[in-house]
Amino acid sequence: MKLVAAIGMGILLVAGAVLAQPEVVWELPKLTEAPTLDGTRGEEEWANAITEECSPSKVMEDGENYGWVDEEAQNSERGINQLLGNLGDEEDADEAATDDDLLTNLWVAWDEDALYYIHEVRDNYHDTTQDAGGNPVAWWERDSVSLYIDLTNSNTGGGGELYEAMNILNLLAEPQPSSSVTVSYTYIDAGARVDTQDPDVVGDVEFAYRDAGEEFGGSEDWVIEAMVPWDVFMQFNLPAAPTAGSVMGAQWIYPDPDVAPGWNGQLQCWGSADYPATYDDLVFSDLAAGPGSGTATAVESDSWGRIKSTFTE
Fold it and tell me: What's the rounded Cα separation, in Å, for the pair 282 and 73?
């Protein structure tokens, strides 16, 4: 028996039979034209791209839809609210760990040259490298976007053990030219985790940061719009640039230190970073996105702008 529910454009397939490891598969559309990296999302530029919300309320929704690892800790089978409570006078205690603390809408697409994504982030307190103490290359202590990507869709590793397929690309929420640590790449070498900002490794990654003020409902909102050439990933365990039909696993983490030094919380969506088998799958498609692919409607441009089909057997 199959239950199908549809909203908007695109496809999200969910095999709900095994809640402990939800299989969430996105059809990743192909851009007709690369977006201009300016930190402003043009509706035509990103028309028909994958889009979804990541927020504390989305974690709760995913828990209801896919099951819980630990409901009290807000650890669902598809995301985790690890935002911490108020630890400083600057943050409103009523906002901490809620959608008013951190909420993002994301869009993702591809072409033969690169992976593209944009994140519009509601934030109540914006932390940058210049604001924070501690280790300047510790991206997990800064407002930022981290893409965890299983380039070969290995679905292996985790559980406290480093997995050979680990690839993390982090972009700090500040202008790319502002320092030499705004782009970081994490990979595995000889069984050990390596974090690098070496321009020979990350120099081809491009992103635009924009201070968005109160545009998304927060007090210190921001945007990151990025292009990651496949050549960057091919330095590691991606054997070749993807083509239609290729599959990769992907997961997002949004560190959110909120005043306190060191690591002070984060949101996880599309799986658990420690377990590649839980990552959402991206199936590369010839489905068109971007200019000329069709004008997005008001519904299609919101955080639920793709068809979501849920299959149970």
Answer: 28
pLDDT at 85: 65
Distances (CA, A) of 166 to 103, 116, 235, 238, 244: 26, 20, 13, 11, 23
Residues with Cβ within 8 Å of residue 260, at least 6 apart in sequence? 84, 87, 88
CATH number for 79: 2.60.40.1190
Q: What is the domain count for the chain?
A: 1
Helix ranges restricted to H, the chain = 56-66, 199-202, 230-233
pLDDT, residue 235, reads 96
Pairing of strands 309-311, 50-54: unpaired
Strand 102-110 versus strand 114-123 pairing type: antiparallel
CA–CA gap between residue 157 and residue 163 (Å, rounded): 5
Tell me if 6 is assigned to some domain. no
DSSP 63: H
Give the structural domain span for 183. Answer: 12-311
3 is a domain residue: no
Question: pLDDT tens, 182-225?
Answer: 999 999 888 888 999 999 999 999 999 999 999 999 999 999 99
Q: Which residues of 201-223 are buried (b: 16+ CB within 10 A; e: fewer)?
A: bbebbebbbbebeeebebebbbb
Quote the strand ranges of 98-164, DSSP E.
102-110, 114-123, 144-150
Side chain identity, residue 9: M
Identify whether 7 is part of a domain. no
Cα–Cα distances in angstroms (integers) from residue 302 to residues 35, 46, 299, in the given order? 18, 12, 6
Q: What is the pTM of this model?
A: 0.86
Helix (H) or strand (E) holding 27: strand 23-31
